């Protein structure tokens, strides 16, 4: 007797109602269990039934049809570490009395599910499983675990081991009336145990320990500073204009930080080479020399951005700036300036042919996912988003929002960035925020033209906008985007989406991995 759905009463005038089980339901429960479990001790006795209701009334759920009880589920909460995977049904359920129920536990344990044989075909088992999932989420429990019988194994015991049988059921070569149902309801087999129900001859005393993970589980809810469900992002479509000094640049930066933080945004994104106008004061006949002089401003600008992040209580993804180190390596770097005063940096990995030939710029050696107070983020500078391997490596580290500062001079260059960013959002099941610069810089060699349209892209499924675009700016106009992103939608997509790109990868055939991830200088 364990978690056993029994599902195929003609659908005439049914009136189904899901509710909690009550003491007066005992006779109906007893009748169903006697019919479902004739070879497994039949129904609970009255004392066991009353104990279940008194110890955890919320976990006892039933379905009635026109006032007649026709299906039920029994559950309890346990501290799963106390029991581990090698428990027996009798021990973990307290011999059916649920004396082992622990209100402070972390796992909803499925004791039983049963459906009146006359009501098979109405998918009542699925309704009860869904009700359990809802209960698990509302109680903020880590998972649902249950021991599942494999009654079909008796027909294959001479040719297959229990492990082989389960694998055949998982691949749909064999139908098992219980395990097949459980797998179709998003449960996975945690392991196979023996002796779970010693009298279960159909399963040969074997059972599958099945598990469903609550993707909304939070370790401990914080009253202040807890994990966010909705993140507000701001993207600046930056106007390139003559800038004579650092103070002019700081004034423009602070204007946008002030404006976006006024909407209580969590993070603001600036474009690639947003400090490019400062290069006008250097020798334009030698672009390589000019960009190296521009790099002298990078450290003061970073310090100012850290100050702004603290002063305006907002995280800043600081587009990118050139960095020229003592090893005489010129790189393109983006800074993450957190509102707690800490900062990190991400180098551009792939330099364009233009950056190499005009400036002699080199690429960095690693990508990483950064922890912030609103989630896990990644930064890829412009050209890097056109290489799908990098975001895939980030996705394996829990990436939720990818920020892409870019600089493009023509529409076709912009469309390369845009189309690739949209693809990265879909294939990695994350949000992607892009932002570039507009206008022109007539006196700056190799940065004289700008074309941009900032945007925020989403995965493509029912929980997201129909075109997978959360918002987009007017092309080539200085402005900001303010967008709210629901991180719980990403969790739901990765478990229950129409397609699940990350989960469905054939890692038995291929994988993306670093051959060498160097330690970036600086």
TrEMBL record:
<comment type="similarity">
    <text>Belongs to the carbon-nitrogen hydrolase superfamily. NIT1/NIT2 family.</text>
</comment>
<dbReference type="InterPro" id="IPR016181">
    <property type="entry name" value="Acyl_CoA_acyltransferase"/>
</dbReference>
<feature type="domain" description="N-acetyltransferase">
    <location>
        <begin position="16"/>
        <end position="216"/>
    </location>
</feature>
<keyword id="KW-0449">Lipoprotein</keyword>
<dbReference type="Pfam" id="PF00583">
    <property type="entry name" value="Acetyltransf_1"/>
</dbReference>
<dbReference type="InterPro" id="IPR036526">
    <property type="entry name" value="C-N_Hydrolase_sf"/>
</dbReference>
<dbReference type="InterPro" id="IPR003010">
    <property type="entry name" value="C-N_Hydrolase"/>
</dbReference>
<protein>
    <submittedName>
        <fullName>Nitrilase/cyanide hydratase and apolipoprotein N-acyltransferase</fullName>
    </submittedName>
</protein>
<dbReference type="InterPro" id="IPR000182">
    <property type="entry name" value="GNAT_dom"/>
</dbReference>
<feature type="domain" description="CN hydrolase">
    <location>
        <begin position="231"/>
        <end position="487"/>
    </location>
</feature>
<keyword id="KW-0808">Transferase</keyword>
<dbReference type="Pfam" id="PF00795">
    <property type="entry name" value="CN_hydrolase"/>
</dbReference>
<dbReference type="GO" id="GO:0016747">
    <property type="term" value="F:acyltransferase activity, transferring groups other than amino-acyl groups"/>
</dbReference>
<dbReference type="InterPro" id="IPR001110">
    <property type="entry name" value="UPF0012_CS"/>
</dbReference>
<keyword id="KW-0012">Acyltransferase</keyword>
């Amino acid at each position: 007797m364990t978690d056993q759905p029994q599902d195929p009463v003609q659908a005439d005038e049914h009136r189904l109602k899901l509710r909690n089980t009550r003491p007066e339901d005992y006779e109906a429960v007893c009748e169903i269990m006697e019919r479902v479990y004739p070879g497994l001790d039949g129904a609970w006795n009255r004392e066991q039934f009353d104990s279940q209701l008194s110890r955890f009334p919320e976990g006892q759920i039933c379905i009635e049809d026109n006032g007649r009880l026709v299906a039920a589920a029994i559950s309890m909460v346990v501290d799963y570490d106390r029991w581990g995977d090698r428990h027996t049904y009798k021990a973990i359920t307290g011999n059916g009395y649920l004396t082992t129920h622990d209100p402070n536990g972390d796992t909803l344990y499925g004791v039983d599910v049963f459906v009146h044989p006359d009501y098979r075909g109405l998918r009542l088992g699925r309704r009860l499983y869904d009700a359990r999932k809802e209960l698990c989420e509302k109680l903020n429990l880590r998972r649902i675990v249950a021991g599942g019988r494999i009654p079909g194994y008796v027909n294959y015991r001479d040719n297959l081991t229990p492990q082989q049988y389960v694998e055949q059921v998982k691949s749909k070569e064999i139908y098992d009336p219980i395990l097949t149902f459980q797998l179709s309801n998003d449960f996975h087999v945690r392991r196979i145990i023996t002796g779970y129900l010693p009298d279960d001859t159909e399963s040969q005393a074997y059972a599958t320990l099945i598990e469903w993970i609550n993707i909304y589980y939070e370790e401990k809810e914080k009253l202040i500073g807890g994990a966010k469900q909705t993140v507000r992002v701001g993207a600046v479509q930056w106007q390139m204009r003559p800038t004579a000094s650092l103070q002019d640049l700081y004034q423009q930066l602070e204007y946008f930080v002030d404006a976006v933080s006024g909407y209580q945004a969590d993070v603001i994104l600036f474009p690639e080479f947003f400090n490019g106008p400062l290069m006008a004061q250097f020798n334009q006949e030698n672009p390589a020399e000019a960009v190296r002089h521009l790099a002298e401003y990078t450290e003061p600008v970073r310090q100012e951005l850290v100050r702004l992040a603290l002063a305006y209580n907002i995280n800043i993804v600081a587009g990118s700036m050139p960095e020229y180190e003592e090893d005489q390596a010129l790189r393109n770097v983006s800074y993450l300036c957190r509102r707690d005063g800490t900062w990190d940096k991400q180098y551009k990995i792939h330099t364009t042919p233009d950056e190499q030939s005009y400036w002699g710029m080199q690429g960095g050696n690693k990508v990483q996912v950064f922890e912030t107070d609103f989630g896990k983020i990644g930064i890829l500078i412009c050209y890097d988003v056109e290489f799908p391997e990098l975001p895939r490596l980030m996705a394996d580290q829990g990436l939720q929002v990818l920020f892409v500062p870019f600089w493009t001079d023509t529409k076709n260059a912009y469309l390369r960035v845009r189309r690739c960013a949209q693809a990265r959002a879909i294939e990695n099941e994350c949000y992607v925020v892009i932002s570039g610069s507009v206008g022109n810089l007539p006196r700056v060699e190799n940065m004289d033209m700008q074309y941009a349209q900032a945007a925020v892209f989403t995965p493509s499924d029912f929980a997201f906008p129909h075109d997978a675009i959360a918002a987009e700016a007017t092309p080539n106009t200085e402005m900001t985007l303010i967008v709210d992103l629901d991180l719980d939608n990403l969790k739901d997509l990765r478990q229950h989406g129409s397609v699940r790109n990350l989960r469905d990868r054939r890692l038995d055939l291929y994988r993306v991995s670093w051959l060498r991830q160097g330690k970036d200088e600086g």
